[in-house]
Amino acid sequence: xxxxxxxxxxxxxxxxxxxxxxxxxxxxxxxxxxxxxxxxxxxxxxxxxxxxxxxxxxxxxxxxxxxxxxxxxxxxxxxxxxxxxxxxxxxxxxxxxxxxxxxxxxxxxxxxxxxxxxxxxxxxxxxxxxxxxxxxxxxxxxxxxxxxxxxxxxxxxxxxxx
Length: 162
Prior knowledge:
alpha/beta, YbaK protein
């Protein structure tokens, strides 16, 4: 199970350049924006969703200032009707607690039933994500995150999120 230290070890093993900023625990984008953290414009919002049959789960990563229309997203990825997954599902699927969600959490998904959905606007950008805990934000290149996820055999969908 990938934890905070394992997250940093994985980045180091793969020679990925990153900057880490420690901060108090945060649970919402409003909270993280309230701290004097550098590069807040690069911090992504992560949503853990499921279809209405609880067969497919999606970890959606978008710019922190964006919102998501779930109906539109379900048509684009494509999926059955989407809704937010429960905290129990989050813990069972990704080994994460509420507030700790980040795209790399999919590396803990042994059932391989979670697809990572990235907003196309993240391509070519530096992004800020939690290192498996919400007490720090790590800034790194989007492509590095995507490649690590693909290298682990997880599914990735690129989508224009509106």
